[in-house]
Amino acid sequence: MRSRLLDDEFVSKLEQLELVARRLTAGSQKGERLSRRRGRSNEFADFRPYVPGDDLRFLDWNVYARLERLFLKLFLEEEDLRLTILLDTSPSMDYGTPSKLEYAKKVAAAMGYIGLIHQDRVEVSGFARRSRVIFGPARGRMQARRLLDVLGALEADEADGTDLEASCRAAGARRGGGGIILLFSDFFDKAGFEKGLRYLTAAGRGTEIFAFHVLAPQEIDPDLKGDLRLVDVEDGGLVEVSMTAPVIETYRRTVEAFREEIREFCARRGMHYVFSPTSVPFDRLVLEVLRRRGLLK
Amino acid sequence: MTIAPIFWLLAFIPALVALYFLKLRRTDVVVSSTLLWSRALEDLHVNAPFQKLRRNLLLLLQLLALAALVFSVWRPRVAGQAEAGDRAILLVDVSASMGAKEGGETRFEKARREALDIVGGMKPGDRIALLAFASRTTTIEPFTDDRALLESRLKSLAPTAMRSDLRQALLVAHSLVEAIPEAGVYVVGDGTYEGLETLPSEVKLRKLKLLGEASALDNAAVTEIDVRRTFEGESRTEVFALVENLGKAPARLTASLEVNGELRDARALDLEPDASRSVVFDLGADVSGSREARDAPGGIASVSIDAQDALSLDDRAWVRMDPPRKPKVILVGPGNPWLELALGSSSGIEHRLMPLAEVEKLLAEARPGTVEQSFGADVIIFDRTAPPGPPPLPAIYIGCLPPLPPSVEAPRVTKTPPVLDWDRSHPVNRFIVFTDLFVEEASVFRAGPGYRSLVDSETGSLAGIVEYRSPGRPATPALLIGFDILKSNWPLGHYSFPIFFGNAVAWLGSGPGGERPARYRTGEPLVHHPAAGAAPARGSFRSPSGLDRPAEREESGAYTTSLTDEAGVYDLVLDGNVAERFPVALLDRSESRLVPSGKLDLGDFAVETKSASEEAPRDLWKWFALLALGVVLLEWRVYTKRLG
Q1: Of B289, B201, B317, whose CA–CA distance to B587 is shortest?
Q2: Residue A98, preceding bond cis, omega within 30 degrees?
Q3: Cis peptide, bond prior to residue A137, ω within 30 of zero
Q4: Could you give the angle at the alpha carbon of A84 between the alpha carbons of A83 and A87, nearest 5°?
Q5: Radius of gyration of chain B from its Cα atoms, rounded to whole angstroms
Q6: Residue B219: Cβ within 10 Å count
Q7: Touching check for B30 and chain A: CB below 8 Å?
Q8: Cβ separation of A230 and B43 shorter than 8 Å?
């Protein structure tokens, strides 16, 4: 599969990967995931004594032969996984080389691809001031091509700001609980990121949320000099600053504090914070970092 | 304390800060979000309210440059001496000792640097007068605030061969700023000054500062030279010189005598520190007796020592060896054996008697202007009888009087006037004591203008000198003795009698202007009296270095110059011929002693030397201007670096 976003070699590596939801959740259709609900699948879960009314098909006759007691074999029921990808497409994401949006799109494409080929239900939404579904929900390898096309064509919005709160609230309400939410954003919302994330967690119990904090190297360690007037690309806000070593140093510390703030907020609410500077090659993020973080196996 | 007006310029600093923010052209840079920048700046502002100012290197540099400029315009100085007042006088010593070499440079060069420092430290509005002094004080530049002018004048100064007379210089300086008591007087010299104790107290109380730090130097010098003649038997000429070692180390020297540039004699001298040795070179009769020397305008002998010391100009002195003169004397009077005996006892005087009638006849026959020639004598003595007119020649009147010049009061007759005092400085009184002179009756004169008293009594002057002047001619002196020497104990009881007449005839007979000195000190005026009847001619004095300076012609016909600031032989050139030679040398022991006292001894108190390194105002404005330039360059560098 050839795509602007993912090359073949990378795609073949993705084939080996599978999304892991640590919180087993009930999907609406049977999929390749084991649901916490025990049911009919090949995955043995437990035994329990037979009580009248139980399905006799699940009695373990071998045990009965040895112990002369009736035990019912319990199986984990396999379910599909709901993978929701929320992509921040605000103008601020169109920054850096490569742009943060490009980077997020690639990671999202990889994750969506993995989901699709494992029969997970994949939905992709973009948001700036409002969230909108741009792909899915869909599943199956057959949809992978379309996913890549959609993501490849995705451009940053012309919006005049980011409204994380409204976007997350809408996405959360639409989606309900369970599954995995991958949120890609730089979290540059002057109203604050907290409310938005809170809406995501409130969307449903058992939802595993990964907050990908995408930042360009220029944002982490700015290479600016002289007396400048900084213009906010989203709302046109101005900040006059004379770039001196102390100012740059303070800015670096602020970025650090900002990351720590989000990380701590996520940790408190059981979300995963994944710091994703675009300086880390996206394939490394997917193949190494996310495996290490347990999202992929 | 008032704020120097220049400091108002510092008020520009806030303006500059304001301007800085106004003029700052910020470059627009689009960023993904200003969220974190705002937060970062907020942090900065919270942490340090003046962070923006403090951390702004460019602004700081500009402030620094402005401050440096303000300071440079203010012209700061270390140890502001010129604070002494808006007016100051710089007395720059150009005496001979300033030519002494100390460590590769002369004391003068060292002192001039300090003077330049003071001039360089002038504040706007300060006025400095520049005076140079040696034995004379010259105003080089009256009060001016033109620093460049003062500096160029200072640079044009050079040490002379003259001795220093700081006393005179301080009097001149004081007279310049008499009305400005706060004006300071800076003496820029080497500190070898004497005779300041007798300065008037208002001069002593003036703000005096002695600048210059000289160290004691070894020096040997010829401090006196003279020529002596003896008339006993064969006339002989001796050249006498005094050689002094004025240093702290023993000196081994050779004193050499040259006559008219030809080496005649040399003596080895061992001189202990602070010792002096007189050297007498006996030339026998060969110089004075030789025809050539007698005809020459003046043979010049010089004594030099081969000292390798700090000051070389005092290592040589010159003296003129005039051919001996035997003054011719005419004695007019009724006869005076004592007087004749006294005149006859001196081998240096030729005298003859002449009756008064012959004198009157000669006077009557003589054409105007040729009276002296018709007598054929140098001095005429009228003893108790005199012709009615003024003296035709330099004359001595004993017990009689010529018609007195109008400025001289007629004498009063007094009985037995006791002698009180006499003028010891006059050559006529040389070697003479008048105590116990008894006079029966005398006409006593009142000293005053036109009458110089030689011997004073209680009631008036017993003897004195008047001068008879006529235009275009040298004055004719007359020595008046107001008593009949035969009515006194002078000829009998006093050894002074023959000496007095010997002196008087020698002095009166030495020609116009008195006895010519055999040598001159630098700074002394040179006078040439042309022979009677000589036509006026353009004259110039040629200095030892070959400079021709026009000779001034006095009313009496004498040629003079006072520009004797070089040591050596000066020639008076009249119509292209050398009319007279003048040997000029330093001959000043205190000037040759190169040991500074380190203070001005004013008698009542002393003014310490101010070492230039401590006190001389160091002009710092150049450094501040340089700092400003450096800062501006640095700012440019920082600015371009930021842009890049």
Answers
A1: B317
A2: yes
A3: yes
A4: 140
A5: 36
A6: 24
A7: yes
A8: no
Chain B residue whose CA is closest to A246: B55
Which residue from A minimizes the CA distance to B47? A250
The string of DSSP letters for A193-241 reads SHHHHHHHHHT-TT-EEEEEEEE-HHHHS----EEEEEEETTT--EEEE
B429 phi, psi to nearest 5 deg: -90, 10
User: Do B34 and A225 make contact, defined as CB atoms within 8 angstroms?
Assistant: no
**Is A250 at the interface with chain B, CB within 8 A?**
yes
User: Helix, strand or coil for residue A71?
Assistant: strand
- SS3 state of residue B522: coil
Phi, psi of A278 (to 5 degrees): -70, -5
d(C-alpha B341, C-alpha B403), whole Å = 28
Q: Which two tokens stand for residue B106?
A: 């002369």
Distance in angstroms (rounded) separating the CA atoms of residues B212 and B592: 18
CA separation for the pair A82, A35 (Å, rounded): 12
Beta-bridge partner residues of A215: A277
Strands B101-102 vs B618-619: parallel, antiparallel or unpaired: unpaired
Phi, psi of B572 (to 5 degrees): -90, 120
Residues of B in contact with A231 (CB under 8 A): 28-31, 34
Q: What's the per-residue H, E or C state across B193-220? A: CCCCCCCCHHHHCCEEEEECCCCCCCCE
Determine how many CB atoms are found less than 10 A away from the CB of residue B419: 18
Whole-structure pTM value: 0.50
* Amino acid, single-letter form, for residue A206: G
Q: How far is A263 from chain B (nearest CA, A)?
A: 16
Query: Would you call A238 and B34 a contact, using CB atoms and an 8 Å cutoff?
Result: yes
Q: What is the pLDDT of residues B441-498, one digit of tens each?
A: 999 998 888 898 999 998 889 999 998 887 767 788 899 999 998 888 888 867 788 8
pLDDT digits (tens, 9 = 90+) for A64-116: 888 888 887 776 555 567 888 888 888 888 888 888 988 888 888 888 888 88
Within 8 A of A159 by CB-CB distance, chain B residues are none
Give percent helix, percent strand, percent coil of chain A, each to the nearest 5: 35, 30, 35
The tokens for B194 are 């004497």
CB contact under 8 A, A242 and B33: no
Q: Chain B contacts of A228, Cβ < 8 Å?
A: 26-29
Contacts 24+ apart (CB under 8 A), B383-386: B383/B331, B383/B332, B383/B333, B383/B334, B383/B336, B383/B339, B384/B333, B384/B334, B384/B484, B385/B332, B385/B333, B385/B334, B385/B356, B386/B332, B386/B356
**Interface predicted TM-score (ipTM):** 0.79
Euclidean distance between the first and final Cα of chain B, in Å?
Answer: 49
The parts of chain A modelled with pLDDT lower than 70 are 1-4, 20-45, 75-80, 159, 176-177, 203-205
d(CA A147, CA A166): 25
